[in-house]
Amino acid sequence: MTSGIIDIGPWQLGFGLLFILIAGAASLYHSLHLEKDLLIGTVRTFAQLFLLGYVLKLLFDVDDYRIVLSVFLFMILFAAWTVYGRIREKQITFLMPVCLSMVVSFFLITFMVTAVVIDVKPWWTPQYFIPIGGMVIGNSMNAIAIALERLLNEMRSKRREIEMKLCLGADYKEASVDIVRDAMKAGMIPSINSMMTVGIVFIPGMMTGQILAGADPMTAIEYQIMVMIMIVGATALGTLLVVLVTRKRCFSPGHQLLLKPGS
Amino acid sequence: MKKNMIIRLSNLSFSYPNGKRLFDGISFDFYPGEFYLIQGASGAGKSTLLRLINRLEEATDGFITYHGKPLTDYHAPLLRKKISYIQQTPAVIRGTIRENLLLPFTFHSNRDQHKPDDETLSRQLQSFHLHGIDLNQPVENLSVGQLQRICLIRGLLLSPEVLLLDEPTSALDDGSARVVESKAESFCQTHQATVLMVSHRPFTPTMMKPRKIKMEEGKIREIT
Predict the structure, then answer these.
(1) ipTM of the predicted structure?
(2) A70 in any annotated domain
(3) For residues A161 and B95, what is the distance between their CA atoms, to the nearest angstrom?
(4) What range defines the domain where residue A23 resides?
């Protein structure tokens, strides 16, 4: 039995493409028309991850917190832009408040993990701060997108109920409290579900990666537990802030619902 | 002695976001204790006018005053408890009839209002011809006509100064429609409230002479 890390060479990686060919053949056989997407997806996976590898190599040698935080900020801005693009909302704008909420919540959680939980010195050490920040951002981004989509859809579909409450003297918070609750739940349930099933239904990718890279399974598990808890915390905080600021954007200062149906 | 107007429309204009103009520079005064019947073809802007007075919409130009002050000077939730707007399609929350009738009293702006007891609520149901209906009954089992009356009772429980009714009888049979109309009339008379009612139904008042308003081609005028 060998211990330690086994390097994957270019030929082995190339051999892995066989799986893509199988998927492509299945797509052709069943006329799924996914061949082009498969090809683009494969090229992008190779290009983006190799690029990330080089960036991380450079970044890990950096000894300046300003550069590390700038990269972190760029990652959040990109995530916020992705969420904004996915929602396709035309009647209200919420990119700036969403960005700010994401910066506040993601920085707070990543800082807590590196400075308090792992106790890295300095707290912004790029080997820790960037990958952990990346996991926080990546996982919470999906939760935020789900919660925002639910929020805006329900604001439209329950317009009559919201206006009824406004007409009876409710302020905008009272008129939309149920919708905020539903949106929060929708965003948080996937990360809570994965806490329920982790280790039984699936083995998390990060833990697998650490074990394959030669880490002790118990150390990998400790990190994984920390990551799962961190993701739930970041999802809850990020979703709450983003949903609350976006909800405010849905109403005018005169407590009028600005979202009109059918857009 | 001439009463002071309660609501004034001053050069009010409203356009949709796509630029289509609904009405243009309309002016009108509404007085306390008067019953106004608003008529006009579909799309003439009757519902929009009620929504503007309730401040669910904002005018494109001009302004509305309530007791001499622009609507924008009031905190909207406090304004809306004084100017109650009952929507054309009844809107309710999931729950019992009691929960729906008492919904306004859960809102901060209505905390100073006396919360009616079960006896008062049951009496209201009876007076609106909602016989054999229990307060514990879920609203999901009610017909549209019954829901419309529940919504009207809920609005009246707040004792507003101005009552805006958007087609309150559209889903009712003649008998029930007459009950709703006479309730609106008696509310207007006993509370010296201002009632603005949009209705397509021919309305024969028994207690007071309504003032008829016609909206057409972007203008508003009183007809005799």
Answers:
(1) 0.93
(2) yes
(3) 13
(4) 1-61
Q: Is residue A106 part of a domain?
A: yes
Residues sharing a CB contact under 8 Å with residue B120, sequence separation 6 or more, in sequence order: none
Last residue of a domain, one of A9, A34, A61: A61
Query: Does residue A80 sit in the same domain as residue A193?
Result: yes
Give how many domains chain A has, as a whole number: 2
Q: Which of B74, B80, B164 has the most A C-beta neighbours within 10 Å, making it the best mutation to test the interface with A?
A: B80
- Looking at the structure, tell me whether residues A116 and A226 fall in a common domain: yes
Residue A23, in any domain of the structure:
yes
Residue B75 one-letter amino acid: H
A255–B72 CB contact, under 8 Å: no
**Do both A176 and A155 map to the same domain?**
yes
Structure tokens at B200: 């397509």
Alpha helices in chain A (DSSP H): 10-29, 35-60, 65-87, 95-111, 126-157, 159-167, 172-197, 205-212, 217-249
In this complex, the residue of B77, B86, B89 whose CB is nearest that of residue A255 is B77
- Going from the C-alpha of B40 to that of each of A54, B86, B220, the distances in angstroms are 71, 19, 9
What is the gyration radius of the CA atoms in chain A, in angstroms?
22
| pLDDT value, residue A1 | 45
Shared-domain flag, residues A98 and A40: no
Q: Provide the pLDDT for residue A262.
A: 63
Among A255, A167, A174, smallest CA distance to B72 is for A255
Across chain B, the runs of DSSP E, i.e. the strands, are: 7-15, 21-30, 35-39, 61-66, 69-70, 83-86, 162-166, 194-198, 211-216, 219-223
Positions in chain A short of pLDDT 50 = 1-2
Establish if A161 touches chain B: CB-CB under 8 angstroms: yes
Distance of CA A211 to the CA centre of its chain: 24
Asked, for residue A260, whether it belongs to a domain, the answer is no
Q: What is the pLDDT of residue A2?
A: 47
Query: For the segment A5-54, what is each residue's pLDDT rounded down to a tens digit?
Result: 677 888 888 888 999 999 999 999 999 999 999 999 999 999 999 998 99
Verify that A175 and A241 share a domain, yes or no: yes
Identify whether residues A7 and A88 lie together within a single domain.
no
The mean pLDDT values, 10 residues at a time, for chain B of 224 residues are: 84 89 91 93 90 95 95 95 92 95 95 92 92 92 90 94 92 83 90 92 80 89 84
Does residue B154 belong to the interface with chain A, where contact is any CB pair within 8 Å?
yes
Give the N- to C-terminal CA distance of chain A in Å, as an integer. 61
Contacting residues of A for B151, CB less than 8 Å apart? 164
- Domain end marker among A38, A61, A84: A61
On whether both A1 and A107 belong to a single domain, the answer is no
Measured between CA atoms, the residue of chain B closest to residue A175 is: B107
Same domain as A139, residue A14: no
